[in-house]
Amino acid sequence: MILDVDIRHRQGGFALDACFQSDGRLTALFGPSGSGKTTIVNAVSGLVRPDHGRIAVQGRVLVDTKNDIVVPKHKRRIGYVFQEGRLFPHLDVRYNLLFGRWFTPRGERKASFDHVVDLLGIAHLLDRRPSTLSGGEKQRVAIGRALLADPHLLLMDEPLASLDEARKAEIYPYIERLRDEGGVPIVLVSHSVAEIARLATSVVVLSEGQVIASGPAAEVLRHTGFFAQSGLTEAGALIEARVSRHDEAYDLTVLQARAGTLSVPSLLHPVGTSLRVCLRARDIILSLKAPEGMSALNVLPGLISSIDIGEGASVDVQLDCGGDPVVARVTRKSVEELGLRPGVAVHAIIKSIAFDPEALGVTGGENM
Ligand SMILES: Nc1ncnc2c1ncn2[C@@H]1O[C@H](COP(=O)(O)OP(=O)(O)OP(=O)(O)O)[C@@H](O)[C@H]1O
Fold first, then answer.
1. How far is the CA of 41 from the centre of ligand 1 (A)?
2. Signal among the record's keywords (predicted)?
3. pTM for this structure?
């Protein structure tokens, strides 16, 4: 197990009671403001000492209050990347990066400087001072500095929150590479379901200091009810698809998933690239018959596997489309009127516009 957390902690009027395990290469902690994400991250890094409980990282116990174990912060080998990079302004990028190693025992310095620099695409920045870097570049250097300390876990507390959408889009591919090739598991605090849909392999959802869901990203994200307080509109199914061809005449790219073929606005990824696609539940409508005379390009036949009835007018209809899970958020009224129930064959109709290039991530193939 990469991360095993079972802690209780009180601060002011707030009570945290969090229990979850994660084996993911990138675990996202999601929840509304004040739900306890930073408190958990601080307890793992050693900035906060939980009142009760246990924390283990890669099998190594960092906190076990029953047995009076509290490993000091500097011995935990946890990398931390803050919202604002916190680089040393008087050192150039090279020395900021090298600073990361100083606290790691010599025999345990395994991360290769050149590999980390290459992974994060910062070779051309090595002689520059932080004040001359863009926000995204600063964050890449901050991530590099943390990695060069050979951490057992990398904590990222909303590392992209201060960046605009364009800068975020620039840095996502580096986080994907880090997840797939970096060799260090990551915990990412995020407010954005779109970001989680793109990056996470596991998700922990918090609400008022409690864990309300945790598990593989594809499993958690397709239950939109977990995201009711914020991010409901972005939740949906994660599926893997390969670029099968580019249709230049119509500026479209055709993807092949187990569920069927999907046409999306033209992508730059070469044929054969494996992509993670988020099919947002709110962008899908269901039809009992194969639609005709419709402008929607993407129609996936499937069988209803279950219906999640929660509070309110909407429900999640979970489908099995050729082995890919797909979820549609529809009204309870439609469920009744169409006679939807498990086992019924339907067609999921997805508007081409539902494929947001920002929600498409390159996947190493084992990240779902
Ligand atoms: N030192 C403290 N003393 C008292 N209360 C605190 C302290 N630090 C945090 N809190 C409270 O604990 C709760 C959880 O805070 P935390 O920062 O973990 O939430 P969060 O989910 O990370 O929120 P955000 O997304 O806004 O960063 C909040 O209600 C906060 O006001």
1. 11
2. no
3. 0.87
> pLDDT tens-digit profile of 33-75?
899 999 999 999 999 999 999 999 999 999 999 999 999 998 9
Q: Which of 316, 319, 276, 272 is nearest to 300 (CA)?
A: 319
Closest listed residue to residue 20, CA positions, set 150, 199, 211: 211
Q: How many angstroms is it from 147 CA to the middle of ligand 1? A: 27
Q: Which domains does the chain have, with CATH numbers?
A: 3-221 (3.40.50.300), 237-362 (2.40.50.100)
Q: How far apart are CA 356 and CA 180, in angstroms?
A: 22
Contact 306, 350 (CB under 8 A): no
Residue-wise burial string across 251-286, b where 16 or more C-beta atoms lie within 10 A, e elsewhere = ebbbbebebbebbbeebebeeeebbbbbbbbbbbbb
Whether the CB-CB separation of 368 and 216 falls below 8 Å is answered with yes
With 70 as the cut, is the pLDDT of residue 159 above it? yes
- Which tens digit of pLDDT belongs to each residue from 301-312? 999 999 998 777
Q: In this structure, is the dihedral angle defined by the CA atoms of residues 155, 158, 162 and 165, taken in order, positive or negative?
A: positive
Closest atom of ligand 1 to CA, residue 189: 22
> What's the Cα-to-Cα distance from 125 to each of 41, 129, 174, 340, rounded to whole Å?
30, 8, 15, 57
